[in-house]
Amino acid sequence: MNDTAHAGADLLQVTEPHRELLDQVLDKWSLQVLDQLCGRPLRFNELRRAIPAIGQKSLTTTLRRLERNGMIERLVLPVRPVAVEYRVAPVGDTLNQLVDALLQWTTQNMTEVELSRKRFDAQN
């Protein structure tokens, strides 16, 4: 029984590569971009309109990081003028339910989190 428990613990260790990937995929803008692209492919300006708070530089950086990690694909469309479309990649699509669950969790628990923050801030 100890061998099984130990093997399971090894699988759940968070190493530097795990932390780096989670940091890059679960950051502020990546979650929102993935959420939008899980719905349908979008062009750069469509993403900017869908996420109005994100700046051009932040969106560009986020898209490159997600593409580098294999979460999204960048497709150059054969039109004039040249257009680029972003879509969720197969490995990124496996995050769809997880991203939805995280967003749902934040919605369900935000009131309690805000109360905890107010209590903490009042005490400190």
TrEMBL record:
Domain HTH hxlR-type: 16-114
Residues making up the signal peptide according to the UniProt record: none
UniProt entry tagged with the keyword Cytoplasm: no
Sorted UniProt keywords: DNA-binding, Transcription, Transcription regulation
InterPro entries: HTH_HxlR, WH-like_DNA-bd_sf, WH_DNA-bd_sf
GO molecular function, one term: DNA binding
PANTHER family xref list: TRANSCRIPTIONAL REGULATOR, MARR FAMILY (PTHR33204), TRANSCRIPTIONAL REGULATORY PROTEIN (PTHR33204:SF39)
Record's protein name: Transcriptional regulator
Organism taxonomic ancestry: Bacteria, Bacillati, Actinomycetota, Actinomycetes, Micrococcales
